[in-house]
Amino acid sequence: MRAVMRVTILLVAFALATLALSWWTIPIIGGLWGLVAAKETWPVTTAAAAAGLSWAVLLAWAAVGGPVFDLGNKVGAVMGLPGWGVFAITLLFPMVLAGSATVLAGSLRPKGKP
After folding, report:
1. Cα dist from 101 to 19, 48, 51, whole Å
2. What global pTM score does this model have?
3. Best CA proximity match to 18, nearest among 98, 79, 108
4. Cα 104 from Cα 55, distance rounded (Å)
5. Could you tell me what percentage of the chain is helix, strand and coil, using 3-state DSSP and rounding each to the nearest 5?
6. Which tens digits make up the pLDDT trace of 12-50?
7. CB within 10 Å: which end of the chain, N or C, has fewer?
8. CA torsion, points 45, 51, 52, 58, in degrees to nearest 10?
9. Which residues does 28 contact at the CB level (< 8 Å), separation at least 6?
C-alpha cells in the first residue's frame, strides 16, 4: 500500500510540474526522489512508473479535448511509425528521464560511514 502512495504522490508531482513548467522538470523531480528515497525499495522503478503514468494521464486529458489520435497518426506517418508508436515513445521519454535522474542522484548521495 505504501508503494501505491509513493507512486501516486510522485505521479501528481510529475504531472503538476510538467503542466506548470515543462518537460525538463521530470529529471529534476526524479533527481530529488533519488536523494530522498535512500532507504526505499525500487526507487528507480517507482520514479519511472510515476513519470510514465503522469504523462499518460496528461495525454488522456489532452485526447478528451482535441484530436490527439489524429496527430499521433500524422506524426507517426512522418516518422515511419504507427500512431501507437508515437504514443509509446511519448510515454517512454519521461520514464527514461526520471529513472536516469534517480540513479544519478542516488549515486551522488553520500554513503554512510563504514
Report:
1. 19, 10, 12
2. 0.86
3. 98
4. 22
5. 80, 0, 20
6. 999 999 999 999 999 999 999 999 987 788 999 999 999
7. C
8. 160
9. 17, 101
Cell of 12: 501528481
CA distance 11 to 29: 10
Neighbours of 88 (CB within 10 A): 12
Residue with cell 560511514: 113
Residue 85's identity, in one-letter code, is G
Taking only the tens place, the pLDDT of each residue in 41-94 is 899 999 999 999 999 999 888 888 888 778 888 888 888 888 788 888 889 999
